[in-house]
Amino acid sequence: VSDLAVLGGSVEVVVRDGRIAGGPAAGLPSLDATGLVVAPGLVDLQCNGAGGVDLAAEPERLWDVAALLPRWGVTAWLPTIVTSPPHVRERAAATLLAGPPAGWVGAVPLGLHLEGPFLSPDHRGAHPAELLAPPSPSEVAGWSPGAGVRMVTIAPELPGALDVVRDLVSRGVIVSAGHTGASVEEAAAGVDAGVRWVTHLFNGMAPLHHRRPGIAGVALTDPRLRVGLIVDGIHVHPRTVAAVWPALRGRLTLVTDAVAALGAPPGPLRLGDSTVTAGPDGVRLADGTLAGSDLSLDRAVRNLVAFTGCPLADAVAAASAVPCALLGEADRGVLAPGAVGDVVVLTPAGEVVATVIGGAVAWRS
Ligand code: ZN
What is the pTM of this model? Predict the structure, then answer.
């Protein structure tokens, strides 16, 4: 079913043929949202896996991960591949381009986010050192949205990085700065070359220093950048989230950086070729390094409200309208006639009640 009316008090969202349409709702199947919040579906720009599946280990299971995400309010996402051998990226792209299996329902993948391999060895986090590579125009020659690559995270200070940034941008790929030791000058040069996002602010970069603010300082002050933040209360302290919120309001994009541990039973799991374990202090490698999260995007929304006191609508925008604006997806992240019929119904506290994708109910509590 791709026709649906979501009805709640003064709110009436009508979806016909998968797109939001002007009324009337009469005659359509309907979802009762009385007393609830009706919002655009959530969009995750950085998700490495879920439900025990790690995309870098099993890229062919991309559609299985996508099918799990609606329970957390997610209607579209960028499947994210951490630094991996080329064949992993190629298999993920092939799986994406082949399209979903028959009868599949899930969060729509809008293209891959390749996080690496052009990252700083000094800020690699959980990315394997032996797979990092210097930026290379020949390596990215085939990377484009048409080939399945929507976003690339790169350290802009690496030799040759700015040429690769310009190359990718010219082909319509969104370039992000991350896992980087960039100074203010190096980060600004990256933005001038076309960098438009910052991958998980504060994680995988030098801390904000008042005399050497580095890329974090640029992220907080350059209006050309939108900025990813992992608001799980572990990757970034709640007080830090509250401190940077006024600078980032309208530019902050909530991400999960979720790994296989999201929605999986406890126990060791894969992240690429590494083993990670989820615990109360986050998902970590054996040496204690944080390695993604088990955060869901709806929880990130609730956390942002809790940590900053912002209205739920602002937190939802950070997980819908703002990432869609970065992607240039003008018909997503808004509830307006003509937009894709992706809707999330939330309690006033931000718990997911129902997720609608293209006018079909993909998940209900
Ligand atoms: Zn990362």
Answer: 0.97
